[in-house]
Amino acid sequence: MTSPHSPYDVLIVGAGMTGSCLALALGQSPKLRIALVEANPPNLEDVPPDTYDLRVSAITRASENIFKNLGTWQEIAAQRISPFREMHVWDGTGAGEIHFDSAEIGEPCLGHIIENRVIQGALLKQCEGLDNIDLYAPAHPSGIIQDDRKIYLQLEGGHCLEARLLIGADGANSKIRQWMGISSRGWDYQQKGVVATVQTEKPHQETAWQCFLPQGPLAFLPLDDPYHCSIVWSTTPDEASDLLALGEQEFATALAAAFEYRLGAIQAVSPRAAFPLRLRHAETYTKPRLALVGDAAHTIHPLAGQGVNLGLLDATVLAEVLMTAKKRKKDLGALATLRRFERWRKGDNFATQLVMDGFKRLFGNTLFPVRLIRNLGLTATDAATPIKCLIMRRASGLTGDLPLIAKPKSIDPGEYAG
C-alpha cells in the first residue's frame, strides 16, 4: 500500500452533484485540503445545443441560492436553465386539481428545471479552479482502513489516500456505506420511472405539470425550448418495459392520452430509459471519521423532485459544520463534530420521505372513498390561498432550517469560509 500524496483534511467519494457541491463548498476555505474521488471520468464539455440530458432535476430556490453563493449559477445559466413559474397537479381518476403560481408568493419562479450534467459540469469546473481540491478520476476505491486519528481510502492499483474524514457521496448503492457497516431501511415501490425528452404540440408555458395515475405519477417538466419537456412516467415494472418497447409514434400516442392531451399531441420523442424507484434511509449518517450525504444516506420517490435538493442541503450543512469545527480547532472526523450534521439533516430528510411516500400511497389508492376524499382535498386546498402559499414556500426552499449558504442573500465568502 503506497500513499504518494500528503494527507487531506477531507476525502469525498463520488463527484456527482452532491459530492461536487460539497467539495466546492469546503474549498471556499483555503485552510482545508480536499480530495474528490470519482470512478467515472466526468464530461466537462458544454452541453450540445440540440440534445437534452435524460436526467434533469427540479432545483429549488434554496439550491439556486447555494449555486449563486458558490459562484456557480452564472456558469449553469450560461448553458441552459428552465424556470418554472407555475405548477398544475391533478388526479387522473377524478376532478380534483390544484394550481400553484409563484406570483402568489411574490417570487419570480418556483424553481428551475436543469439537466444533471449541466449542474455537475459547472460544479466540477469550478472545483478544478481551486488549488486546495484534487480530483481523482477515474479512480476506483477498493476498501477503507481507519485508526483513531486517520482514515485511509484504498484505490485499485495499490495507491492509498489519507484524510481525517471520509465522506460517502457515492449514490444509492454506496460502497462507502457498505464498508462502514451501516444498514439502510426502506422498501422498493415496485415501480420504475420512464424518462424521455418530448416535443409537444402546445407550449409548456413555463409550467410543471403532474398527473396522478393509478400506476404512479406522470410529470412533464418544462425545458428551455417552449415546446420541449422532460417527462418522468412512474409506473409498474411490466408497463415500463412495455413503454420502452413501443415504437416512437406508439409511445407518443400512449403518453399524450395518459396526459389527457394537456399539451396537445406529442410530436417527437427522444430515446427512453427507466430506473427503479425505492425509498431507503441509512440507520445513521455518521461514524467516527465517516459521514454519508445525498443518495448514499437517503433516497426518495421522485414525484416532487426533492431528491437532489435534499442532497445539496446535506452537502452545505456538512460544509458549514466542518468549517465551524475548523475555526474552533476541533477534530473534523470526531463523532461529536459529525453528529451535529446528522441532527440537523436526518429529521428533515425523514419527514420529507414520509410526506412523499404518503402522497404516493394516497394517489395510488383506487378505492372510491379514498378517491373522493383526495379529490375534495385537492379542490379545497386549491381554494385556500394561505395554505397554498405555505406549501409553495416550503417546497421551494424559502423556509426551513437552512444553512447560511442556502439563504436568499449574498454572503461574504470570508463569513462562510471562516
Topology:
Elements: E1 8-13, H1 17-27, E2 34-37, E3 56-59, H2 61-69, H3 73-79, E4 82-84, E5 86-91, E6 97-101, E7 111-115, H4 116-128, E8 133-136, E9 141-146, E10 151-155, E11 160-168, H5 175-180, E12 184-200, E13 207-213, E14 216-222, E15 228-235, H6 237-245, H7 248-258, E16 266-269, E17 273-282, E18 286-287, E19 290-292, E20 298-299, H8 307-327, H9 335-364, H10 368-383, H11 385-395, H12 413-417
Parallel strand pairs: 1-2, 1-11, 2-8, 5-13, 11-19
Antiparallel strand pairs: 3-7, 4-7, 5-6, 9-10, 10-11, 12-15, 12-16, 12-17, 13-14, 14-15, 17-20, 18-19
Overview of the structural elements:
- There is one protein chain.
- It is built from twelve helices and 20 strands.
- By secondary structure, the protein is of the alpha+beta class.
- Strands 5, 6, 12, 13, 14, 15, 16, 17 and 20 form a nine-stranded mixed sheet that branches.
- Its cofactor is FAD.
- Component of the Ubi complex metabolon, which regroups five ubiquinone biosynthesis proteins (UbiE, UbiF, UbiG, UbiH and UbiI) and two accessory factors (UbiK and the lipid-binding protein UbiJ).
- Belongs to the UbiH/COQ6 family.
